[in-house]
């Protein structure tokens, strides 16, 4: 469920009006909540369940409104390492803020 997709109401709408069910209600294992990812869940957080800490951090950064650093022009050549490090710091902070942790 995300505010940018069906105003965050798509899941509830489909469950109430069309009879959709969660995978766990049909005895299937849940899958990662990152859009278009179908891998098994290995991490849990305050914002959902994900296959990896990276997917959890990306979704957390999005939920927190963090603009992730990236190289976007030729004028920034030579700064790729700095940008990569900054992005990893931002993802680490997002994972920490959403309390991403492995499922035991």
Give an overview of the whole structure.
The protein has three helices and three strands; from the N terminus they run H-E-E-H-H-E. With 104 residues, the protein is mostly helical. A three-stranded antiparallel β-sheet has the order 2-1-3, covered by helices on one side. Strand 1 and strand 2 form a beta hairpin. The two termini are 25 Å apart.
What is the typical, i.e. mean, pLDDT? 86
Strand order of the largest sheet: 2-1-3
Using the alpha-carbon principal axes, give the shape.
elongated
Residue share in β-strands: 5-15%
Helix content: 25-40%
Oligomer: single chain
The main sheet comes to:
3 strands, antiparallel
Task: Provide the succession of SSEs.
Answer: HEEHHE
Secondary-structure-derived class: mainly alpha
> Tally of extended strands?
3
* N- to C-terminal distance: 25 Å
The number of helices is: 3
What is the alpha-carbon Rg in Å?
17 Å
Sequence stretches where pLDDT stays below 50 over 5 or more residues: none
């Amino acid at each position: 469920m995300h505010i940018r997709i069906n105003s965050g109401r798509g899941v509830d709408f489909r469950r109430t009006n069309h009879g959709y069910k969660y995978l766990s209600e049909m005895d299937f294992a849940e899958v990662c909540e990152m859009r278009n990812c179908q891998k098994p869940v290995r991490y849990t957080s305050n914002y959902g369940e994900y296959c990896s800490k990276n997917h959890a951090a990306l979704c957390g950064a999005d939920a927190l409104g963090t603009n992730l650093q990236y190289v976007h022009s030729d004028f920034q050549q030579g700064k790729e390492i700095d940008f990569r490090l900054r992005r990893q710091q931002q993802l680490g902070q997002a994972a920490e803020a959403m309390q991403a942790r492995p499922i035991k």
